[in-house]
Design brief:
The protein has a domain at 3-108. 29% of the residues lie in helices and 19% in strands. It has 14 helices and 17 strands. It has helices spanning 31-40, 50-56, 66-71, 80-91, 96-108, 177-186, 205-212, 230-233, 244-256, 276-287, 306-319, 335-338, 342-353, 439-442; strands at residues 3-4, 10-11, 14-16, 47-49, 124-125, 128-129, 133-137, 140-143, 192-195, 223-228, 260-266, 291-298, 322-328, 364-369, 373-383, 386-396, 406-409. The strands form 4 sheets. An 11-stranded mixed beta sheet has the order 7-8-9-10-11-12-13-14-15-16-17. A hairpin with a 3-residue loop joins strand 14 (364-369) and strand 15 (373-383). The longest helix is centred in the last third of the chain and has 14 residues, at 306-319. The N and C termini lie far apart (64 Å).
């Protein structure tokens, strides 16, 4: 399963449902865990690689090892009834189309695109709907290049799991970079472009360059961001892959054009920064002038510990990375398995934050990427004799709401923003719904008088 090229470098090979049983670690798994991988992966996407299996997973701790939880399907990711149905179909050798039909039924019940991604974030150029672009916040546009709609491995909690599950109508992707440039020219308020996926780092450098080159000519763009998990899941992309040097040269060209290049690095656990190749990837990226910003959700079974977060922030800061965001896991996919009450998320954040120096206190969180914006949990307080969550928007569809504290009734069981209720009548304006707000709100424009 391990592949080495002629120069002695590790070559990437995906490990999926189709070939995982041929890995040496598969035989060491108990029957129950192997069945869970087989059953759950018929519904939720499963993809890992030989680097993760050989270097990041501690097989003596499986199934509790955090990297195993992060990349391998677990039985409890499906509701008990759904798991039983899928297991029964597989055991009796049901036709492929029957299994796929049942899998699709379950997928559509898992909120595949939260926060209005398909309905309210997709802009238009004239009459054309730009399905590979999202524009939720005034200054920032997200671009989904069609060649970057996969990853070196899939996180089991990923809120973009639907893009990998074979449902074409649930994918974000576009080849129309010309339409992107035209849209940006019509919206000069956009200063930041986030190239995301999937993972843009799965593309060859020459192909990524074709997407980035036209953006360098736009004076309005101050920052180009690239969202990637490759720094953790396949750091060889920046070190030993055949076109790694070309990729770093592309990063330098972005900087030479007066743009800031930000690598939005998804690090979920300190072990992802522990290998020599992972640290060399960080060093090489930073040598181009690009900065690396660390972000991840807090996820049960993976990193739901203040000590884990503090260690990860300290390790990243020592290497020159910028701790950026702790997110609340989104309300999609296997959320029931990974979700943590909001109050516990905040306690984890506070417990980690107070362990680190000011260099790592650039981080913000916990933050929920909800329909109206990025909701930052500041903590709790006693307001008029009642305990309440203190919240603010770090980003919002309505920019005038940003950084204005508001209150929600304290709910120890709440795991997402839509489970909260305003504390007072004055707080209601901070709790919009998709169904009851005018189009001007949905587009992020000021409401008409």
């Amino acid at each position: 399963m391990i592949r080495i090229d002629s120069s002695g470098n590790l070559r990437y090979r995906a490990i999926t449902r189709a070939n995982v049983l041929r890995t040496p670690q598969w035989d060491d798994l108990c029957t129950e865990v192997r069945e869970a991988v087989e059953v759950v992966s018929t519904v939720l996407p499963f993809r890992t690689n030989q680097y993760i299996m050989a270097e990041l997973i501690d097989w003596s701790r499986v199934p509790d090892d955090p990297m195993f939880q992060l990349t391998f399907p677990q039985r409890e990711m499906l509701h008990e009834d759904d798991y039983a149905v899928m297991a029964s179909l597989i055991r009796r050798g049901a036709p492929r189309e029957v299994i796929e039909e049942e899998a699709n039924r379950i997928r559509y019940e898992l909120n595949p695109h939260p926060a209005g991604q398909l309905t309210h974030n997709v802009p238009r150029l004239g009459r054309k709907r730009l399905s590979g672009i999202q524009h939720k916040y005034r200054e920032t546009v997200l671009f989904f290049p069609s060649h970057g709609q996969t990853c070196h491995a899939y996180c089991t909690f990923c809120f973009r799991w639907a893009q990998f599950a074979g449902l074409d109508e649930l994918k974000f992707a576009t080849r129309e970079v010309d339409h992107l440039v035209a849209y940006l020219r019509q919206n000069p308020q956009v200063t930041d472009m986030l190239i995301t996926g999937g993972d843009p780092m799965v593309m060859k450098s020459s192909l990524l360059e074709q997407y980035i080159e036209p953006l360098l000519k736009l004076d309005q763009l101050l920052t180009i961001r690239i969202g990637t998990k490759a720094v953790a899941y396949w750091p060889h992309r920046f070190v030993t892959d055949p076109d790694a040097d070309d990729l770093l040269y592309l990063f330098e060209r972005v900087m030479d054009h007066g743009k800031q290049l930000a690598i939005m690095a998804h690090y979920c656990h300190p072990v992802e920064l522990s290998t020599d190749v992972a640290r060399e990837a960080v060093r090489r990226i930073r040598s181009t002038g690009a900065n690396i910003r660390m972000q991840s959700p807090v996820v049960k079974h993976v990193n739901d510990s203040a000590d884990i977060w503090a260690e990860m922030w300290r390790m990243g800061a020592r290497l020159g990375c910028i701790p950026y965001y702790m997110f609340v896991n989104r309300d999609t996919g296997a959320q029931d398995y990974f979700q943590i009450p909001l109050i516990r998320c905040w306690n984890i954040f506070q417990g980690a934050y107070r362990q680190v120096s000011g260099i790592a206190r650039t981080v913000r969180g916990p933050s929920m990427s909800a329909f109206p914006g990025k909701v930052h949990i500041l903590g709790t307080s006693n307001v008029g004799g009642e305990r309440a969550f203190v919240l603010q928007y770090l980003q919002a569809r309505r920019p005038e709401l940003v950084r204005r504290p508001f209150f929600a009734r304290f709910d120890p069981e709440a795991t997402w923003f839509d489970e909260l209720r305003p504390l007072t009548a004055a707080d209601r304006r901070f709790f919009p719904t998709i169904q009851h707000r005018p189009a001007s709100f949905i587009l992020g424009l000021p409401e008409e008088a």
